[in-house]
Predict the structure.
Amino acid sequence: MRAPFPELVERHQQRTYRAAYRVLGERQAALDVTQDALLALHRRRASVPDERAGPWLARVATHRALDLVRRREVEARARATLATPAAASPVEALERAEEAARALASLAQLSPRQREVVALRALEGLPFTEIAAALGISEGATKVHFARGLRALRARLPGVDPKLSGGPT
Amino acid sequence: MSDHETCFEDLPLYAIGDLDPARSRAVEAHLTGCSSCAAELAALRATLEPLQVAAARADEPIDLVPWSRGVASARQAGAWPWLLRVAALLLAFAGGVAADRALAPPRELAAEHAWAPPREADPEPATAPPAPEHSPPLARARRAASGPTGFARGLLALSALSEDE
């Protein structure tokens, strides 16, 4: 028996919104992405079981939010407005916000699979078992995508010695 | 694979805290004597750190439940266009039948066409002459009446409606 759509929205809206907001750091853009993801779920009720709806929505919201970042539509706004926790001063908060924006922009440039796995693990905190189920691949393959994605991301960030990204010496 | 290579391969999962305990202990033992793996681990942690800053972002809760009720009821309302299509089909069928009756050629003329022998020297036997731009209304109506039947018009109407989707 499928739950009514409003019930699913009530159950998953905060988590879906958080997934979008973590990437975008901007309320209206994150709200738009959340509505898009929920509408996508509404259209695909037949193929997404209710018990899988949460991870499915987080995945769709993260994917769409990173797509916006990749197209640089929200990067500037996110950099200017995002809330940065645990910063000692406004200057430090701005620096950390800019680092986060750069890291997210680099993340958005990874291959779709690596981007998805790194985002769901490092941003959403989903365990590899749930990511594997959401993507329909094995847990081992998910871990391989994560390791490669993290190394690719590391090679893209400034201040990293490129020699270290080539493998063991 | 050497201890060093194994450790290097394990570092991303170790950095995020997902390496199993036995391999984590092996990584920690190797790290004490390997500066390149220690540097790699530091770089991976530095890569993850800004993502964890983003992960800690939080905003006020949202409430999309009223919006979702609108979406759900719009979906139910979406059944009506199908009823309208069925009604349109029936109307098209009835209209087609009525047009057939109203515009059919007189019975004797129809009979003449039905039994007329083929002409021996038809100048354009394969193609009908193009309709004149301003043909008389009755002629146009008769051409229309010689087209698809009412039922066929209904089917055409349904297919036209389906193409709208």
In short: Confidence is low (pLDDT under 50) at residues 109-133 of chain B. Chain B touches chain A at residues 2, 4-5, 7-9, 12-13, 15-16, 18, 36-37, 39-40, 43-44, 46-65, 67-69, 71-72, 75 (CB under 8 Å).
